[in-house]
Amino acid sequence: MALSIHSEIVGVRPREMGSCYTARMDAVRTEAGTKRKKTRAGAPSQAFPGVPISHWSHSSLMAYLRNPLAWYKRYVEKVYDTPSNPSSIVGRAGHIALQHFYSGIGKDGAVELGLEYLRNVPDFDVNFGKARTRREKEKKRETMEREYLQAVQFYLERPPRHTVVAVEARGIANVEGLPLPLKAISDLVVESRLERGSLDVIDHKFVDAFSPTRAEKTLFVMQALFNYYTVREQFGRPVRRFIIHECKKRRSADGSSQMRRYSIDYAKCGEAFAVFHRLLNDATADLAQRRVFLPNPSDMFEGENSFDIYRLELIDTRGTP
């Protein structure tokens, strides 16, 4: 996604957004017969009768676009029974370690708390893949622990220094021009070194390989915009950058750095903001009019599970537009 246009579009009025307000969105507003209202988290939107959620988050939006039935199961029915893959559990343990480290706990203590989380994840919450026997699962867990310890030690060898304002900042923002509030969690909110008085958002990612497109990766940009609005509303200060620290879990064969840093400057994201608004409006309009939530068997994360749900009719997938 190109990031070349200035950010005057941030906070613009709906009519100024042009294509962000489509005829479909206008039809939904007319049917609702009311302006957007602030809703409590977890409750269906009262402003849009056909919308079964109270807000969008980055993970929710991406899941809806990828696999509507898997999205419906998790975000509407609130069923969280899909096991996580080992890589995501290792990443979560790493996040917990860094959360405690930047909250003031020493390195050893932070590492131990992340390890405690990893060890406490029950077997039924882990997708062991081809590992079936007890011994095979034990070996997989040993591998997960080694990966975690190696990755977090890579990060903490020379941890980035920040003037921390908040750790794990959870926020909800009502944004002019968007039909539903936005929700996001920011790993760190820090004082910006680029612009005095502004804030930067720090995001940690533990990965198997570095992102080839770096800061221009669409997933990063979409996530950054969710965090922009929630941090701006929560702290009432300008937000300048979204900074991603990628830590590669396996040691580089060529001895190169295990860490990479990418920066998304919101002042250069005008086009991205416009697309973001249009996507959220179109997704909400689509959701309000959706009659059936279909599975996506090609989804590499939840394709099989979503199709099993559809085949066995385990969830009523028909919406009420």
Task: Explain what the structure shows.
The protein is α/β, with parallel strands linked by helices. Among the domains are: 122 residues, no CATH class; 72 residues, no CATH class. Helix content is 40%, strand content 15%. It is built from 9 helices and 6 strands. Strands 1, 2, 3, 4, 5 and 6 form a 6-stranded mixed sheet that branches. α2 runs antiparallel to α3. It is globular, with a radius of gyration of 21 Å. The N terminus is likely disordered. This is PD-(D/E)XK endonuclease-like domain-containing protein. InterPro entries: PDDEXK_AddAB-type (IPR038726). It comes from Candidatus Kaiserbacteria bacterium CG10_big_fil_rev_8_21_14_0_10_59_10.
Low-confidence stretches: 1-42
In N-to-C order, the SSE pattern is HEHHHHHEEEHEEHH
Helix content: 40-55%
Tally of strands: 6
Work out the strand percent: 5-15%
Quick check: average pLDDT? 85
In whole angstroms, the N-to-C terminal distance is 32 Å
Radius of gyration, in Å, reads 21 Å
How many H/I helical runs? 9
User: Overall 3D geometry?
Assistant: globular
Major β-sheet profile: 6 strands, mixed
SSE-based structural type: alpha/beta
